[in-house]
Design a protein that fits this description.
This protein has 287 residues and is an all-alpha fold. It is built from eleven helices and two strands; from the N terminus they run H-H-H-H-H-H-E-E-H-H-H-H-H. Helix 2 (22-45) packs antiparallel against helix 3 and helix 8 (207-224) crosses helix 9.
Length: 287
């Protein structure tokens, strides 16, 4: 993330300098996504989720999501090009970049029927990205950190930089709630898979294709995210506890074990690391 403009510049110039960066566009995209999700949430609560405002909010949220992840992917590609780095040739290796995965899914949701739950994982990410950018760039641009020299210090002593109280509060929020929120995102992505599966088994138009696309996406997430792996492990443990009930018929218990075996074999067969030779250095954390 680029540093904020120099404090010696006037405020208007500092803000203009900040607004001219791609990173600011990334920030605006995440902020737009949050605001659109809130607006859509109000329509959803009042059962007006197919009103014009609701449709506009829903689609705009995913336009913003696609823009933000597109900026990250573009910047990564440009950085490699400037460094004359050799491109990772295979499309499978490219698919291993989490930002590419979320860019693709944002476009899929943009052109699919409305699934309100799909907004929530993107929104949680956006909350932390907006908070981090505000703390690292926006606040220092508006109110540059003040430098003070300790009383009685020697002339050559390094000044103490006084941080923003609001920035400190944001930093504590991110540190305290990040891991919990990523676990929530993992759970939401699991619930979303079952939500799409329900639509598929009830033969909702386009749901089988959507289920296939989302399953590929979720399989990649499982390979790369310890939070998703933990959520799957917890869900499996809860399932084992439920199906261990002695009152259940043996055929039901056997069905659970068969289901787990099928999922495990499918996961092993679709492990992307088997085809790209392990974790790729170009893989990035979703931004």
């Amino acid at each position: 993330m680029a540093p904020p403009p120099p404090a010696s510049m006037p405020l208007a110039q500092r803000l203009m300098h900040l607004a001219q960066t791609l990173q600011f566009g990334w920030f605006v995209g995440h902020l737009t996504l949050i605001l659109c999700t809130i607006r859509y949430g109000l329509s959803y609560i009042t059962l007006n989720y197919y009103s014009n405002w609701a449709k506009l909010s829903y689609r705009t949220a995913f336009v913003a999501a696609a823009a933000t992840y597109g900026i990250v992917v573009f910047k990564a590609f440009r950085a490699r090009a400037r460094a004359n780095a050799r491109q990772q040739g295979s499309s499978i290796a490219l698919a291993g970049d989490e930002n590419v995965q979320y860019l693709v899914m944002a476009l899929v949701w943009l052109f699919s029927r409305q699934v309100p739950l799909a907004l929530l994982p993107f929104t949680v990410y956006s909350i932390f990205h907006v908070a981090t950018y505000t703390r690292a760039n926006l606040l220092p641009t508006i109110t540059p950190p003040q430098q003070t020299t300790p009383t009685g210090a020697s002339p050559g002593a390094r000044p103490i930089i006084k941080s923003s109280p609001l920035g400190d509060s944001i930093g504590r929020f991110v540190k305290e709630y990040y891991d919990v929120s990523m676990t929530v995102v993992a759970d939401l992505e699991i619930f979303l898979w079952f939500r799409i599966l329900l639509s598929a088994v009830t033969f909702t138009k386009g749901s089988w294709i959507l289920l296939l696309v989302y399953t590929v996406f979720f399989r990649a997430r499982y390979s790369q995210s310890s939070f998703v792996q933990g959520a799957i492990s917890d869900s499996t443990g809860r399932g084992d506890a439920i199906f261990a009930n002695q009152s259940l018929p043996p055929i039901v218990k056997q069905g659970w074990q068969t289901f787990k075996g099928i999922v495990r074999k499918a996961a092993d067969a679709t492990d992307i690391n088997r085809y790209v030779g392990g974790q790729q250095p170009g893989m990035k954390k979703a931004q």
